[in-house]
Amino acid sequence: MVEVLTLTDNVLGKRMRWIRDKQDLKQKKVAKSLNVSAYQLSRYESGHSKPDPELIAEIATYYNVTTDYLLGKTDRPDMTAEDEKSSLIEEMAKKYPDADIMFDNLAEMTVDQLREVDDFIKFKLQKKGD
After folding, report:
1. Which of 8, 7, 10 lies closest to 18 in space, CA to CA?
2. For 3-24, what is each residue's pLDDT tens digit?
3. Cα distance from N-terminal residue to C-terminal residue, the chain
4. Which of 13, 31, 66, 113 satisfies CB 3.0 to 4.6 Å to 45 for a cystine?
């Protein structure tokens, strides 16, 4: 699981850097592919500058991740926030058929709230078994 970051933590820059390092790519190569200078890419990764929305989309395509992942809206590089939310709800519905009743409509919760509910149910079930 990728560390959950807030927007004030420069999530975009940190994720850009993490993916680049994970793929063992040099800044110069990525910068050239994105038509920006290595200096500008460094500024994006450090949080000293923010790319425009079109460039964020290009970066996501280049790294084969979603823009939602780059922006910290989801922790799944291959899913949008809405896809992740739907996936969590589906998973919880299978594991805990009465969860929607217990937590008053899971579909209206955020991804973070859904994770908290899932963790809470796991905790309570573990305590019940102890």
Report:
1. 10
2. 444 445 789 999 999 999 999 9
3. 27
4. 13
pLDDT digits (tens, 9 = 90+) for 36-64: 999 999 999 999 999 999 999 999 999 99
CA distances from 98 to 95, 120, 126 (A): 9, 14, 17
Average per-residue pLDDT in the chain?
84
Model pTM above 0.85: no
Q: Half-sphere exposure of residue 3, counting CA atoms within 13 Å on the CB side?
A: 11
What letter does residue 26 receive in the DSSP assignment? -
Identify the structural domains of the chain with CATH numbers, from first to last: 7-70 (1.10.260.40), 81-129 (no CATH)
